[in-house]
Amino acid sequence: MSQSQPTVTELTEKCAECGTRTPHTVSIELKTESTKQTNRAFSREPYRVTECRICGDTRSQRMNNA
Length: 66
Hints:
The protein is mostly beta strands. The protein contains no helices and four strands. The chain has a four-stranded antiparallel sheet with strand order 1-2-3-4, with no helix packed on it.
């Protein structure tokens, strides 16, 4: 697997699959957690989603763990 050098605007993070720091695409997604129809509108939570630009490994983490 070839390593590409990140550009100045890319975010590098440790990739669990690659085992090294690699460029990642990072986004925020709102995910609905409730399966009940009456609560669905109030159960959206923000998740930080990262995708390794080398191997494609994607991970998501809930942002407010209150």
